[in-house]
Write a sequence for this structure.
């Protein structure tokens, strides 16, 4: 799977000939990619409706590319009302298969305006990744680990709105991915965090889990 970090919680993931965007906050201060630059997308996932997770941009991307919009029921219904033709109205625990890619909506502990906050498990034929969304630590991350065995876990480390480096390090051991990628830090002063400290904490708990720090705008093949 090829991950491009667009800053904050935004990723472009390419695998098996598919292009997926997660939380595409392309109008935000960090993203080197703007909506106008996006010419191709198959699926766009939005974890919740807070402004820094790219709901508005997701609508634009889906309209211009015909990509599927996938989010929790109430948010997807809103996307349909906004003119998105292809939208899946999942709820937590539910899965949908889109052209060989299985997307599962999972819980997150956070807040939001519409529906409920979520994370995603995405299974390509050649690999599985988990995007935690914005969340605090929760013990049933171990169930996500047991059920889906994610190769790659994308976890927030910035604290203030989400888990901090210590919680995310413990989360890594619950999920047992081959590789963990820190996200949702350094965008604003209040979520400043050191990915090197996160890497050290993960290594102390489980040295078999690789920490991949992707710089904003950088692309990495993982795991
Ligand atoms: Zn949020």
């Amino acid at each position: 799977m090829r991950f491009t970090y667009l800053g904050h919680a935004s990723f472009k993931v390419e695998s098996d000939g598919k292009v997926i965007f997660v939380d595409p906050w392309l109008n935000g201060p960090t993203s080197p990619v703007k909506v106008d630059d996006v010419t191709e997308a198959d699926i766009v996932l939005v974890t919740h409706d807070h402004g820094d997770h790219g709901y508005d941009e997701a609508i634009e991307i889906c309209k211009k590319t015909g990509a599927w919009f996938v989010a929790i029921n109430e948010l997807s219904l809103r996307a349909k009302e906004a003119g998105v033709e292809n939208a899946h109205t999942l709820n937590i625990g539910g899965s949908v298969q889109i052209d060989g890619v299985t997307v599962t909506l999972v819980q997150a502990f956070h807040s939001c305006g519409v529906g409920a906050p979520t994370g995603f498990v995405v299974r390509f034929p050649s690999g599985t990744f988990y995007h935690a969304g914005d969340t605090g630590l929760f013990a049933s991350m171990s169930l996500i680990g047991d059920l889906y065995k994610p190769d790659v876990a994308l976890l927030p480390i910035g604290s203030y709105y989400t888990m901090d480096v210590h919680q995310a390090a413990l989360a890594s051991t619950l999920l047992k991915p081959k590789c963990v990628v820190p996200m949702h830090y350094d965008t604003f002063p209040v979520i400043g965090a050191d990915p090197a400290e996160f890497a050290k904490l993960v290594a102390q708990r489980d040295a078999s889990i690789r920490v991949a720090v992707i710089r904003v705008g950088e692309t990495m093949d993982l795991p």
About this structure: Residues 55-65 form the longest helix (11 residues).
